[in-house]
Design goal:
Length: about 300
């Protein structure tokens, strides 16, 4: 059975054997070459343009290798009677938490500038003093599995943890988002994608952040107003900013590239071998479950 697959999805040997066991003939999806009418099943991990989706007249199933399925226009898919299935399990919890702290350490310890100094034959010239993390306040917005793992890592370093509670669940003694923004020396974002969370960190909230703080976003670009963020960076609000997610990926041009206190990584927070094998495994299992369900219906 033919199944088209996003070229960005690299299967491990074990994943490949699993696909064979399911009887799948995996064909790389390339929009410039594909016959859209031949697509019945598609495994994807990139934004799928509406104009391509509309041409998939015979498509029955799209599996998305992500917890959120915002890569696909689900309303359009539903109108075309295409089932869209994302991953149920939260993968890459440790990987993303570790990457968040990799960015924190790189910024706090001036790794980028220190490395460049040695490359250029210099020593400590022009480097600011390092930013000590122990004793500082780590603010976390989004306290799911990843947020909790980041909190554990922060506590192990001797950081004080400030958790932002939503207004609906604010309990006596807990902090509002605004209080966390004002108090945090380091702020790490772990919000999910939703209409309510779009630009959750907007211009007004960014202006509440402590001058000389560190901001990390390994969640989704949509949770931050990046235009307002770039303005605050230019005004000198931050010690440093670490970003792993962007409005348009892959990134070609970005205003953030001009700043020496910004570290950009190409959406690799989740990309460990362990995480990818598990994600690919569930992606294939979901397709298997769909096919078995169809057999039962038929």
């Amino acid at each position: 059975m033919n199944c088209f697959i996003d070229p960005h999805i690299k299967l491990t040997a074990a994943n490949g054997e699993r696909a064979k066991a399911l009887g799948l003939n995996l064909i790389p999806y390339r929009a410039s070459e594909v016959d859209f009418n031949s697509i019945e099943y598609l495994l994807f991990h990139s934004p799928l343009p509406d104009d391509e989706l509309r041409q998939m007249k015979n498509c029955r199933y799209i599996g998305v290798r992500a917890h959120n399925t915002d890569y696909i226009n689900k309303s359009l898919a539903e109108a075309m009677k295409i089932e869209v299935k994302g991953l149920n399990r939260q993968h890459g919890v440790t990987a993303v938490a570790e990457h968040s702290f990799a960015l924190i350490f790189a910024l706090a310890k001036n790794i980028r500038g220190a490395h460049q100094n040695l490359i250029e034959g210099k020593w400590q010239e022009g480097l600011p003093q390092n930013f000590q993390l122990s004793g500082k306040t780590l603010g976390i917005i989004g306290y799911g599995e990843i947020g909790r793992r980041v909190a554990q890592m922060g506590e192990a370093l001797g950081m004080k943890i400030a958790l932002a509670q939503s207004p609906r669940s604010l309990k006596p003694g807990n902090l509002s988002v605004e209080e966390v923004l004002v108090q945090s020396d380091v702020l790490s974002l772990h919000l999910s994608t939703s209409k309510e969370n779009r630009h959750y960190l907007n211009r007004e909230r960014l202006k509440l952040m402590k001058k000389g703080s560190i901001l990390i976003n390994t969640a989704r670009a949509s949770v931050v107003d990046y235009e307002a963020l770039e303005e605050e960076i230019s005004l000198g609000r931050f010690w440093g900013v670490g970003l792993d997610v962007y409005d348009d990926e892959p990134v070609e041009n970005s205003a953030f590239k001009q700043y020496s206190n910004v570290i950009l990584t190409p959406h690799i927070g989740y990309r460990t071998g362990e995480t990818l094998e598990n994600m690919n495994g569930e992606l294939l299992e979901n397709l298997k479950d769909y096919l078995n369900q169809q057999k039962t219906i038929d």
